[in-house]
Amino acid sequence: MSTSVILLCLVVLGAVAFLAASSRATALAGGKSSALHSRPGYYGAYAAIWTILPALIVLCAWLAISPSIIESSVRGAFPDDVKAQPAAQQNLNYGMVSAIARGLPLLTPEEISGAASDPAGLQAKLAVKGVPLAGQPQPYMIDAAQKLNAESGSSRLVMTALVLVLAVAGAFYALREVAPRFRARNRVERVMLWGLLLASSIAILTTIGIVLSMLTEAAHFFAAVPAADFFFGTVWDPRFAGAGSSSFGQFGLIPLLLGTLYIGFVAMLVAVPVGLFAAIYMAEYAAQRVRSIAKPLLEVLAGIPTIVYGFFALVTVGPFLRDLSSQVSGLLSGNYTNFIQAQSVLTAGIVMGIMLIPYVSSLSDDIITAVPRALRDGSLGLGATRSETIKKVVLPAALPGIVGALLMTASRAIGETMIVVLAAGVAARIQLNPFEPMTTVTVKIVNQLTGDLEFTSPQTLVAFALGITLFFITLCLNIYALYIVRKYREQYE
What we know:
Elements: H1 3-28, H2 40-76, H3 80-83, H4 87-103, H5 109-113, H6 119-128, H7 139-177, H8 184-224, H9 227-232, E1 236-237, E2 250-251, H10 254-285, H11 288-299, H12 306-333, H13 345-369, H14 373-381, H15 386-414, H16 418-423, H17 441-448, H18 458-492
Antiparallel strand pairs: 1-2
Helix pairs in contact: 1-2, 1-7, 2-7, 2-8, 4-7, 8-18, 10-13, 10-15, 12-13, 13-15, 14-15, 15-18, 17-18
């Protein structure tokens, strides 16, 4: 029985247990809900939880553990000369065994019986069935594949029986617990509390896992490249110095970090004023009909894929700025040479700023709208104009939320990749001219993880060092935002 069918059976059993427990509680109370400690739905939910949750935990644990046990058993049956091979070769052999195991059910018994004497023919037969093999199978692989299928089938059969028996037993146990004074609501709410704690723990543990994974790989990188050369280097050239040389390329972070901050700064210069003014207009000045039309249209920008923005920058904005600069140069000096490159910091910043406008405007609009109406009425009643009310009352009250919105926008700008690739290029260099191309940390992360380099080489591991650097920058932004929020909140209160 497949996992999806088992899950469907659990859902059905849970629904049956829910209805049975609800009906039993109502019957024991003589049809009077007031005689029950909890509402009938809580008794049903209690029975459904006992039916589904323990069985689901066992199912997940079995699916997580049994493959490794079966793999260990199959590998243990390999011949001694195969066990003596390197780990990489053994992994390749087991991969072929797994492929053969997937293909054996597609063959007839006659084809399977002749496979041991004709391994090459088995490879051709499996290829016809859509199961390609990396090489010619060996006789022991066929035996191992049959062992793998047999143990997998037995494991799934035992798992199915155990899960269903556990679900039925849980349902009967819950039904026996049903009584008029049984505190079903307290039990259900306790389970929900543990579920909420588990969800929160998953989010926290995921963050910790991401950080630890990046730190582990970054430590391998810093074992080969000095940290000072990475954090304070001014040249980004992650290539081997030469054939047969033990020296690596140069991994200077400064050009990438400068490009990231520069392009993000230009993008924020475009997005923050436009988005914030749009939010103020829609929240304080626009009629309800205008707001209902303008806000969804503005939020459409957030749904456009970033690669489309990149094409827009590459085809429209970049050439426009380049041609405009050549016309301005011609009018001023008579020399029609463009001083703005088609791929430049300005191009990427403008297009990225357009992409970020809905983030600023939509979040700021919701935050400004949430300011109590009594604050506005009090200010207007004291004689302040609408603009003075917005500047002196509404914006200070909404400032903590607006800072959070700007923080999210800044994080979005720092993490953008495709727009920078197409609009600013991949040149890693130090310069302050916004009319020239630069690149960012995220672009180089993609570049270093693309290609045929070894995953253990410094050229690839540097991506994790760049990733942990971005994480640290975002953390600093969060800490600074919390400081600003607390400062202005104390001042406002």
